[in-house]
Amino acid sequence: MKGFSREDQRVALCGLSCGLCPMRLGGHCPGCGGGAGNQSCKLARCALERGGVEYCFQCADYPCQRYQDFDRYDSFLTHQRRAADLEAAREDLEACHSRLREKEAILAFLLERCNDGRRKSFYCLAVNRLELEDLRPILAQLSQDAPTDPKTRAGTAVQALQEAAERRGIELKLRKKPAKKGKA
C-alpha cells in the first residue's frame, strides 16, 4: 500500500505471526507494511489513516468492528493465537520477538530436515499453535534420532507434533470458512 510501511515484520498489525506463515515463507507475501503484499489489507489501510500505528492495540478504537469474526476462521495462517500474540506484544514486545525467533528457528529446522515436500502448512500451523515447552523436546528428539529417509523423518515429526497437540487439546487443522451455497 503506497505510503505505508512498518519496521516489525515478525508480528503483523493485527497480531498474526508473519514469520510462521507459509505464504511469507513461500515469498508470496512480504507481511504488512513490507510492500505490495498488503494491498488489500483493511487493517493496513486503517493504520495509515490513523497516523501509521505499528500495532492495532495502539489505536484508541481497538478492538474495532474490523475484528468482528476476524478470528473465527483461518486464512492460510491460523488466527487461533492472534489475540494472545498481540496481547503478548503489547505486554513485552522484545519477549514476544524472542519467542517468535525461537519458533521461527524450530520451523526452519522442520522445513529443512523433516519435510517430505508436503508439510510446510502443517509445520507452520503446529509451530504457531504449540508452546515452546512442547516444541523444544520435539526438536531435541528430532535432532538426535532423525532417520535419513525424508518420508520417515516427516512421519516422525508429524507424529510428535500431533501427540503434543493432543496433550493440549489442540486440533492441528485450519478452520476454513464454509463455501457459500450455490458455488462449486
Number of strands: 0
Question: What is the distance, rounded to the nearest whole angstrom, between the alpha carbons of the first and last residues?
Answer: 32 Å
Order of helices and strands: HHHHHHH
Biggest sheet statistics:
none
Low-confidence stretches: none
Average pLDDT number: 86
- Name the overall outline: globular
Radius of gyration: 17 Å
Strand fraction equals under 5%
Class computed from helices, strands and strand pairing: mainly alpha
Helix content: 40-55%
How many helices? The count is 7
Explain what you see.
The protein is an all-alpha fold. It is built from 7 helices and no strands. The protein has helices spanning about 20-25, 40-50, 80-90, 95-115, 120-130, 130-145, 150-170. The chain is globular. It starts with about 20 loop residues before the first helix and ends in a 16-residue tail after the last helix.
What's the layout of helices and strands?
Blueprint: H1 22-25, H2 42-49, H3 82-91, H4 93-113, H5 120-129, H6 132-145, H7 150-168
Helix pairs in contact: 3-4, 4-5, 4-6, 5-7, 6-7
Short précis:
The chain is mostly helical.
What are its keywords?
184 residues; mainly alpha; 0% strand
